[in-house]
């Protein structure tokens, strides 16, 4: 058995995710309307990184996130307990900004997980107390 070679790459997308100071779970998958180049998450792939493009932010705001297999966010793929699960956004222009998290994990869809959907991965994300923003979220993968 040889080493798996990735034959394609892409990203899955969530448009206008409403981030607040408590965790919300968002589905990352194909969204042909808002991001025509997005694609469903392959059943077996390498999760490379995740990007948050925030409509408004400031230098004191931190995005905290983790990936999950299920829509309830109870079966984590990554954890929010590591320092790499929290990023301060870079201000792009005015009050808009963004941040990127390195994932670096293999993923294999497991149909035995309750509330899991083939072609999707879920991200749970939050901002600091009293903060809110709208985000475009991209999960980059190789399949």
Overall, the morphology is: globular
Terminal CA distance: 18 Å
Largest sheet: 5 strands, antiparallel
Spans of at least 5 consecutive residues with low confidence: none
Structural class of the secondary structure composition? mainly beta
Radius of gyration: 15 Å
Q: Identify the CATH class.
A: Mainly Beta
Gross CATH architecture: Sandwich
Overall mean confidence score, pLDDT: 93
Tell me the quaternary state. Answer: single chain
Order of helices and strands: EEEEEEEEE
Count the helices. How many? 0
Strand content: over 45%
Main sheet strand line-up? 1-9-3-7-6
Instruction: Please count the beta strands (DSSP E, at least 2 residues each).
Output: 9
Helix content: under 10%
CATH topology-level name: Jelly Rolls
Q: How many domains comprise the coordinates?
A: 1
Description:
- The protein has 143 residues and is mainly β.
- The chain has one domain: Jelly Rolls.
- It is 0% helix and 48% strand.
- The protein is built from no helices and nine strands.
- The chain has strands spanning 9-19, 24-28, 44-54, 63-68, 86-87, 90-93, 96-108, 121-126, 133-142.
- The strands form two sheets. Strands 1-9-3-7-6 form a five-stranded antiparallel beta sheet, with no helix packed on it.
- A hairpin with a 2-residue loop joins β6 (90-93) and β7 (96-108).
- It is globular, with a radius of gyration of 15 Å.
- The model has no long low-confidence stretch (mean pLDDT 93).
């Amino acid at each position: 058995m040889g080493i798996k070679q990735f034959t394609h790459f892409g990203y899955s997308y969530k448009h206008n995710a409403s981030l607040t100071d408590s965790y919300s779970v968002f589905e990352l998958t194909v969204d042909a309307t808002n991001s025509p180049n997005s694609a469903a998450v392959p059943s077996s792939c390498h999760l490379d990184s995740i990007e948050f493009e925030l409509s408004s932010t400031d230098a004191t705001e931190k995005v905290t996130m983790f990936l999950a297999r299920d829509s309830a966010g109870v079966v984590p793929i990554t954890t929010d307990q590591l320092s790499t699960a929290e990023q301060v956004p870079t201000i792009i222009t005015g009050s808009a900004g963004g941040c990127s998290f390195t994932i670096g994990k293999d993923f294999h869809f497991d149909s035995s997980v309750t509330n899991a959907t083939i072609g999707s991965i879920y991200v749970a994300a939050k901002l600091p107390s009293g903060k809110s923003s709208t985000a475009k979220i991209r999960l980059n993968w190789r399949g």
